[in-house]
């Protein structure tokens, strides 16, 4: 005999738990089915163990999607302030790190505990370590899920199974396959918020500087992010690179401003005037990490005493420092990516409820949908907001 629920949520991650507690609070009988061995694994590992659970500046401009309008309604109806109020009700201490990013003072475990407590209080049942074998629409309406723990019937089915990033944490293509099974279009997926790899001479020249970090402005396809860049043994990482990686595709030009906010030409001219005998690498070492400045001057820039540079050459060096071209060979892929770009096409989903326009009672929330946030708490805010929107109606 199948057990019947009003709502079955697939995935006990950020979006799934928020949806389950919201639906449970409305008196719906809710089951969450999770195939991993514990709930909220990505929440636990997020923000270096402190969970960057929201960003107080969240707005639609912080998201990538084929339909940039889609996220507006849900984000407006469940805001960072709503989630902060929940966090405060549970006595979780938090702080703003930078750029509106809120982190737990202690541990991301507190966020998972909070969501599980809310689910518990709302009577939500959570089946952990429960794989799903088959899902089908029932002739009499609703859905049947065949799982390792028996068959469950659901009036509403909410897919919150996340993206493909970090397969070792339980990520699977389940949600995409299910969407296709029910006739939905799935837009091509790729790794986002991910380190970029270098190859050839670029890699050879920079590889041994692994660990060096410097502030840059990274630009690609009309988007720019100013923050730190970290050199790694495979290429480039750090917040500015992770951010721009979501806008980069193989073959795209990537430019780095190595002296963001500075006027390199005026600086170099002033140095030539003040210390004509100083070499370029010495002068640049005062603005850039020393080893990096030296490498620039060994491998790319002509290194001479400042007095030997003419006006044109100085202008040219300044221009290179502000528009350093980088040819990335690829990304580190889903193994290290924080998010998956692309996913279930929003054109066949309701932006108010996240419900399928094709199959009544079927919902898609969180990262499985073609809505991807920047680095900095935006992805969790989307998970909370889309989970809440579906939980209010499912
Ligand atoms: C290392 C790392 C750090 C991050 N840090 C941050 C951060 O600080 N701030 C931020 O905003 N975002 C962060 N993110 C991104 C954020 O974790 C995700 O965007 C967010 O978790 C998406 O929520 P979700 O509920 O859609 O998916 P998930 O949280 O991934 O949850 C999906 C759940 O579905 C389960 N599942 C998958 N397939 C099945 C199946 N077939 N059957 C049953 N269950 C299934 C999974 O096991 C998982 O528990 C980070 C991501 C990573 C990888």
Automatic annotation (TrEMBL):
One Pfam family matching this protein: HI0933_like_1st
InterPro entries: BaiN-like, BaiN-like_dom_sf, FAD/NAD-bd_sf, RsdA/BaiN/AoA(So)-like_dom, RsdA/BaiN/AoA(So)_Rossmann
Domain of life: Bacteria
Residues covered by the RsdA/BaiN/AoA(So)-like Rossmann fold-like domain: 6-392
Keywords from the UniProt entry: FAD, Flavoprotein
Signal peptide: none
Membrane recorded as keyword: no
Needed co-factor(s): FAD
RsdA/BaiN/AoA(So)-like insert domain location: 190-339
Protein name in UniProt: NAD(P)/FAD-dependent oxidoreductase
């Amino acid at each position: 005999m199948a057990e019947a629920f009003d709502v079955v949520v697939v995935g006990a991650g950020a979006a799934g738990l928020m949806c389950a507690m919201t639906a449970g609070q409305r008196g719906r009988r809710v089951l969450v089915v999770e195939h991993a061995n514990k709930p909220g694994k990505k929440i636990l590992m997020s923000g270096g163990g402190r969970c960057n659970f929201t960003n107080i500046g969240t707005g639609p401009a912080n998201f990538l999607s084929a339909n940039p309008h889609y996220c507006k309604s849900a984000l407006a109806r469940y805001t960072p302030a709503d989630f902060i109020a929940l966090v405060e009700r549970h006595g979780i201490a938090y702080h703003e790190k930078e750029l509106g990013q809120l982190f737990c003072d202690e541990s991301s475990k507190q966020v998972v505990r909070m969501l599980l407590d809310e689910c518990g209080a709302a009577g939500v049942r959570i089946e952990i370590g429960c794989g799903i074998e088959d899902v089908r629409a029932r002739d009499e309406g609703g859905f049947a899920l065949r799982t390792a723990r028996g068959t469950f019937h659901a009036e509403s089915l909410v897919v919150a199974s996340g993206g493909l990033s970090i397969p070792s944490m339980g990520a699977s293509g389940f949600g995409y396959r299910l969407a296709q099974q029910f006739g939905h279009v799935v837009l091509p997926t790729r790794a986002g918020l991910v380190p970029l790899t270098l190859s050839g001479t670029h890699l050879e020249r920079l590889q041994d500087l692994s660990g060096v970090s410097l502030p840059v402005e990274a630009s690609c396809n009309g988007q720019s992010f100013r923050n730190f860049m970290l050199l790694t043994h495979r290429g480039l990482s750090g917040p500015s690179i992770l951010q721009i990686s979501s806008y980069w595709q193989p073959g795209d030009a990537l430019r780095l401003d190595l002296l963001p906010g500075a006027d390199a030409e005026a600086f170099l001219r002033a140095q030539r005037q003040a210390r004509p005998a100083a070499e370029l690498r010495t002068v640049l070492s005062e603005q850039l990490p020393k080893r990096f400045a030296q490498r620039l001057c060994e491998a790319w820039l002509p290194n001479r005493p400042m007095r030997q540079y003419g006006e044109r050459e100085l202008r040219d060096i300044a221009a290179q420092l502000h528009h350093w071209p980088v040819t990335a060979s690829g990304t580190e892929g889903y193994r290290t990516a924080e998010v998956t770009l692309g996913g279930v096409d929003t054109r066949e989903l309701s932006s108010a409820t996240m419900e399928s326009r094709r199959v009544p009672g079927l919902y898609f929330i969180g990262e499985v949908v073609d809505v991807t946030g920047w680095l900095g708490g935006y992805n969790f805010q989307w998970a909370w907001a889309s989970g809440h929107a579906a939980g209010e109606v499912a």
